[in-house]
Give the backbone structure.
Amino acid sequence: MILLGAIAGVHGVRGEVKVKSFTADPLAIATYGPLYDDAGRKFELKLAQKAAKDTIVIAKIDGIVDRNAAEALKGTRLYASRDALPAIEDQNEFYASDLIGLRVEDRAGRNLGKVVDLADYGAGDIIAIAGGPDGDFELPFADRFVPVVDLAAEKIVVDLPEDFFTAKPVGEEEERGGD
């Protein structure tokens, strides 16, 4: 299942919801057929308006007829089956979920673990890596740190600063006293 959006809030009093869409075209979220939540409940979205404000669309969900019912859905994550999504033709494009489980290596080919998550906390995508000899860590998912994504070889290559695993985190530097 691929995460396509989340119910961010309510709109009005007739059961409409605000949906944060994670699709390239926010309005496309309603074109993938039924969506499902974490528990497997089915949601049929019908766009109430033909416009999106940034990544938010207004939708009506079958069976949700009032504000209270809509409010109860706030925070619900919406997924589509992977086979409902279009195939990707370009070698340089992929779905974020394609990265989960890929082997992670540095430029020298040293194993650093596997990709366990790709999340966006508002300032850009962050890739989480776990199970390597140096422990778990996160990196910005940007060309500077992740120059190679090779789905065919089932790996990504990361470019880390030399002191990445030995530098002290910000705020833990040794304090220097004045003379």
The mean pLDDT is 86. Residues 78 and 121 are 18 Å apart (CA to CA). Residues 67-71 form the longest helix (5 residues).
